[in-house]
Design goal:
The complex is a heterodimer. By secondary structure, chain A is α/β, with parallel strands linked by helices. Chain A contains nine helices and six strands; from the N terminus they run αααββαβαβααβαβα. In chain A, strand 1 (55-56) and strand 2 (63-64) form a beta hairpin. Classes of the chains: A alpha/beta, B alpha/beta. The structure holds zinc ion.
Amino acid sequence: MRLTRSLENLIEQLQKLPTIGPKTAQRLALHLLKAPEAQAKALAEAIVAARDTVRPCSQCGYLTETDPCIICRDPSRDKALLCIAEETSDVMAIERSGYRGHYYVINKEFKLMGDRSLEDLDFTPLLSKVSSGEVRELILALNPDIDGEVLSRYIASLTAPYPVRITRLAHGLPVGGDIEYTDEITLRKAIEGRKEI
Amino acid sequence: MRLNEIRLNQFRNLIQVKLRPQPGLNIFGGANAQGKTNLLEAVFVLATTTSFRSGKEANLINHQASRCTIEGIYNKQDRSIEARLSIDREKAKLFEINSKKAYRSHDDRLRVVLFTPDDLYLIKGSPVRRRQYLDFALSQISRPYAYELNNYLGLLKRRNDMLRKDQGKSRVFDITNELFVKSAAEVALSRIRYVHRLQETAIPIYERLTGGTERLQLRYALSFAVDSDTINLDILREHLLRIGHEKRTQEILRRNSLIGPHLDDLNIYVDDKLARLFASQGQQRNLAVGLKLAEIYCFAAISGYYPVFLLDEVLAELDQQRKILLLQELARAKYQSFLSSVETIPSLPPDVAWYTVQNGTITRKE
Ligand SMILES: [Zn+2]
């Protein structure tokens, strides 16, 4: 039996979302059809509205409705600290840590869609920030995977000509963890990243 | 390590199995397609969370069920450990050790050495098989190796992608290459050191298998020339960087990485002749048996305990004399083994547990 075209289309569109497989897509589509009409319409409108109003901040890349974003406009933040993050969701996590500097968001997933590679990322906005002399320290807060490692080194090489300190987040022991039960890879990283007390 | 109890639920045709194997040799007999290999496979899957047979993971679940579970209770030295793996058609598989969610590389997972008729191609087959043999053995012994190998394969893929997209001259490529070379040297050096120990272990075993008439030698064969008497990380890195640089034009042209341990090999020699080219059928079988036994003893020498040995239908591939030799070895070994065999065993050694597998049911014969 064939599904009607519009239902088929809805399932197909849902399936393009991350972590949504064919079965879940079908379940969601049927749910949306059975839900009150206002609820389904509200979802559709929310998607359109968010797409229309949310943009990367022209200064830092953080996804925002106002440009510059709320972080860039905050005068109490330390302009000398610039934290480089892969995604807006990472910024939200780092914000919870109490960090009070500024950010530079790469928006990697968004910019690397399709066949593009790290080399295609445009770091001119970052370099103009760094060359302005306002920034004293770049904090690389990229994921501890291959991409994050390559990007960290790439950014370090791009910014090497400027008088700016470059640091990266330490990999290591989880707070409240126990050395005896920590795996040897994490321990090795923790020893490499040890510091004086 | 000793598997004291295994419980299966909806695993292929083994709908409900509870088995308490004995410490030494456990033989599973019965006709084809009754579930002998499935039992060995279940033990392997519990240890590694993946199967050694090809096909979809969902095929491990009985076709009438939506989920299967494998549970095992085993000893690691003097500790008792309980592992549980459940595979669900809808959800991600869940692996637990002592009732806590665990990664597949958990230090307390079950360790196995697997021997199937496929391993008879280890000697004459493509280098991929010999690299897989080394990688499996090393990954079981060393978690840092498993991590580094995974890292290396990721970097290799990244490097190849960039060569394919004609970015071999970019800055990002140079950075990726630096990381690649660092990882490549780690992988190669670990393998070199392992092969060294493997050879020490394999020589006396092979002597025993051949009655002392043939001499075995194992050499890790790098895919690039190193002009140095000693080998260490710095020397490997330096060579990989230099030779990689020399091959760069060719790599860009061919759009593929032409250097690294993914191209290396394990060279096996019998009486100074390369087995890949010169070994007879009989020698190949002796070598395969010898390398598998060496994998077990090497594991024990490094880790301080034995893995569980799984032998799937290998007796049929051996002649009478080698069959008896192998069974004697298994019957008096310090490790536990599970052997499946469609044929009846000629002269059964004493103290062997013998089971019949019929249509998914396993019964112990007295
Ligand atoms: Zn901003």
